Amino acid sequence: MSGRKLAYAVLGVAVLAVAGVMLYKALNNSLVYFVLPNEYAKDPQGFAGRRIRLGGLVEPGTVAFDDNTLQLTFTITDSIKSYPVAYKGAPPDLFKADQGVVVEGRFRGGTFVGDQLLVKHSADYHPPAPGQPIDVNMLKQTLQ
Amino acid sequence: MVHLQLGHLGSASVFLAFALALYATVVGALGAHRRDARLQTSARLAAVATFLVVATAIAVMEAALVTNDFSVQYVAEHSRVASPLWVKIVTLWAALQGSILLWGFLLTAYTALLAFTAPLSPLRPWALAILSGVQVFFLGVVAFVANPFHTLVNPPADGPGPNALLQNHWMMAVHPVLMYLGFVGLTVPFAYAMAALITRRPGSEWMVQTRRWALTGWGFLGAAIVAGGWWSYEVLGWGGYWAWDPVENVSFMPWLTATAFIHGVQVQERRRMLKSWNVMLIALTFCLSILGTFLTRSGVVSSVHAFGDGPVGPAFLGFFVLVTLFAFGLIALRWDQVRDRAELDAVVSRESGYLAGNILFLAIAFTVLLGTLFPLLVEAVSGQRVTVGPPFFDQVTLPLWMLVFLLMGIGPLLPWRKAEGASLRRNVAWLAGGFVVAGGLALALGMREVYPTLTVALAGYNLVSLGLLLGQALVPRLRLSKRGAWSVLWSYAHESRRRVGSMIAHLAVIIVAVGIAFSSGYRVDQQVRIGFNQSATFQGYTLTPVDRFMERSASRISSGAVVDVSKNGRKVATLRPRTNVFGSSRQPVSKPAVMYTFSHDLYLNLDNTIGPDTSYVVLRTVYSPLVSWIWFGGLLLAFGVVMSLLPSRRRLAERRAELAAEAGAEERSRA
Question: Chain B closest CA to A109's CA: distance in Å?
Answer without folding.
Answer: 23
